[in-house]
Amino acid sequence: MSHDSHCAFCKIVAAQIPASVVFENQTSLAFLDIGPLADGHLLLIPRDHYPALVDMPREESTRLLSVIPVLGRALLEVTGAEGFNVLINNGTAAGQVVPHAHIHLIPRQSGDKLGYRWHVSSYENDRPAELALAYQEALRKHID
Ligand SMILES: [Zn+2]
């Protein structure tokens, strides 16, 4: 099992840092975010150290993601939220602060004023076709 002795989340996995753990199995752990955006905000992490989701082997990431619906049902029941956001920040530019892959589950209520504004743009000319082709080529390399 890979572990980074400088990583805060690895320290939580190793019980060297206390956390309010709500779920654990052989490969993953979920606990309360200590800086919650809403009451009951959860973090779901793999026990193994991977800097980001894209660094995880496919089977590992599938196993981790499969926990989301189970946690989500519990979150809705416990917090009384009307919904929740699943958020994964991949890389510093995307707002990832702790370099150990993690998934946020953020309880939401109508009108809670949480969230962000996307600035929606549009495509010109052949750009969608170019992108689709580039994606298809890249995915042939990455899908095992
Ligand atoms: Zn780690």
Structure description:
This protein is α+β, with helices and mostly antiparallel strands and 144 residues long. The protein has a single domain, classed as HIT-like (HIT family, subunit A, 2-Layer Sandwich). 29% of the residues lie in helices and 17% in strands. It has 4 helices and 5 strands, in the order H-E-E-E-H-H-E-E-H. It has helices at 8-13, 58-65, 68-79, 127-142, and strands spanning 21-24, 28-32, 42-46, 83-87, 103-108. Strands 1-2-3-5-4 form a 5-stranded antiparallel sheet, covered by helices on one side. It starts with 7 loop residues before the first helix and ends with a helix.
Mean pLDDT: 94
The best one-word shape is globular
Gyration radius from CA atoms, angstroms: 17 Å
Give the structural class: alpha+beta
CATH topology: HIT family, subunit A
Largest sheet: 5 strands, antiparallel
Strand order of the largest sheet: 1-2-3-5-4
pLDDT under 50 segments (min length 5)? none
Helicity, in percent?
A: 25-40%
**N- to C-terminal distance:** 22 Å
CATH homologous superfamily name? HIT-like
Note the beta-strand portion. 15-25%
How many β-strand runs?
Answer: 5
**Which CATH C-level class is it?**
Alpha Beta
Number of domains: 1
Cofactors, ions and other ligands in the entry: zinc ion
Encode the helix/strand succession as letters.
Answer: HEEEHHEEH
Total helix count? 4
